[in-house]
Amino acid sequence: AQKDRHGYPRPMLERDEWFNLNGTWEFAIDAQGLHKSPDEVTFDRRILVPFSPETRMSGVHETGFFRVVWYRREIQTPDLSDDRRLVLHFGAVDLAATVGVNGRLATRHEGGYTPFRTDITDLLTGTGKDIIVLRAEDDPLDLSKPRGKQDWQLEPHSIWYPRTTGIWQTVWMERVSATHLRYVRWTPVVERWEIGFETRLEGRHRDDLRMHVRLEAHDKVLADDIYSVTADEVHRKIALSDPGIDDSRNELLW
Q1: pTM to 2 decimals?
Q2: Contact 21, 90 (CB under 8 A)
Q3: Which helix (H) or strand (E) holds 50?
């Protein structure tokens, strides 16, 4: 695996040890959705991820009706000593995705516009080479499912656009510690000069965890606090000082 040359796909929680899986994958179209196992599939095409198979950039440019597409790729997995974990991310897959690693189920996800992730550490072979398979199902004729402006007719008409199937956002991995943050959320409360802080921890539970939160703006330290972590989720309200007025310039300081 190689790091992305074009920028980290999740800038709000950036980590150094991540690997981009965009690029060429093996690919197959299962027009009627008949196959339930990758062993039944003939991967007779190549596709450039993250472009959907309907696009020219994907190298497939197949604009007909099909319910299911399959993706397969061999990955080189990084060293996971010191109890590190390997998390696999999909930016978006339209619509229902089933992900397997080395023939075993990793995760299922439904929602063509939302990212999802799965810890694949326990599914790896330990050889440094592993196989990811993704099955994406999206019935183009089912008008009850969320579709945005994707057309249900063979040729786009009026305000409708061509369909999108399968992977259409970045695929990537990251190596994390045995105990790590899943997400961080900030909620400003302007009327009380507060910022709400929320995070969720994953992985090994420890009794001695501390959370260090430091906020800075324009080289000014707004808060520098350490919290005891007593559960998997941490919720705190961080009080800020009133920025005040600089009378000499008659403008807000911030």
Answers
A1: 0.87
A2: no
A3: none
